[in-house]
Amino acid sequence: MKTMEEIKKLCVSRRNLSVLGVQVGIYALLVSIWSLVIMLLEHDVDAAKESMRVNAFVLFLLLTVFMANFYLLVPYLFEKRSKVKQCAFWIINLLFILLWNKHIFSIYNADLPDTTIRIGFYQFGVMWTILNYAMVVAAIFVRYYIRHNTLRRQLREQKQKMTEAELAWLKNQLNPHFLFNTLNNISSLTQTSPNNAQKAIGQLSELLRYALYETQPKEVSLNGEIAFIKNYINLMTLRSGSNVEIKSEFVIHNSQLLIAPLVFLTPVENAFKHGVSGNRPSFIHISITEDKGEIIFLCENSNYPKTDMDKSGRGIGLENMYRRLELIYPERYQIEQRISKGTYLIRITIKPCRKTSPPKV
Fold first, then answer.
1. Looking at domain 160-350, which of 2.60.120.10, 3.30.565.10, 3.40.50.150, 3.40.50.300 is its CATH number?
2. Which of 114, 191, 310, 314 could form a cystine bridge with 306, CB 3.0-4.6 A?
3. How far is CA 324 from CA 131, 170, 177, 317, 338, in A?
4. Do 271 and 235 contact (CB within 8 A), yes or no?
5. pLDDT tens per residue, range 138-149
6. What's the whole-model pTM score?
7. Looking at the predicted structure, is the pLDDT value of residue 113 above 70?
8. Which region is the signal sequence (predicted)?
9. CA 321, CA 167: separation in Å to the nearest integer?
10. Between residues 117 and 149, which one has the greater pLDDT?
């Protein structure tokens, strides 16, 4: 009973019905083409009809051999990877082909006195058997091709799901990391400038609103991302002293460009974390420009690396950013970094996909 249910399920599957439709279409096409050729060559309607009858019968025998193997014998015997079942597969096929083509093999049942005719008949029998076995091999290869493509599609889908899960995990790491660093800066302001601290809390609420609610799509408007970075720079400027020079420039010609959310946040955070000294002149220059569809992020700042004693927000920032870029923009991004004479520079170039509006969530 279970086997019959499996056979029924196998026969009515969309994939197998598609194969059946293709085979029936090829069968009808071959019969029609051959009859048309006879009609054009012989100019005889009766000859064309007879040709259609004969070829319809002969090709039907081959089609049945193919379908019997594709639906039943190959999946239930050949693909089981059992030597006994595979041996049975070839024996059953031999018996099936001989019985199914009995009428073909017994056309010349009468005595054949002419040796040449007998030899021709034997040769025909051998060639017809080989042609039937060719249908068996064709059924094996068609099933293999379909199964191989199905496995490849499943692997692609699984890889896509794993990539999406990793990206979600990376972004979930990024938000607490950003919040921790921002609260750490506001904590310092509460001691040195309570008024600025109160203002910073208001700005932080705007940043959090964007980070938590506006970054849910895979890609967001570049202009929205720039507005977020501007707000973050303004928030960090409240804590910076008069000895810190902060410059920013944003030149975007295509307002429809999209980008992965918060992808430039880490280098901006690091610029304020490692580029500002409490008693020495410091600078931070940040720019985002667009050139021929490429997004270019540039951040240059004075370099005052934190000591081992400073454990504030260390560990996941840049590594997280590199991994996100690799997953979202494979072979469509470049990163250049260098440190020279107390200056750190990072340049990120991204070639985003050509889209005109943010994807729907």
1. 3.30.565.10
2. 310
3. 55, 7, 15, 11, 21
4. no
5. 999 988 988 888
6. 0.58
7. no
8. none
9. 10
10. 149
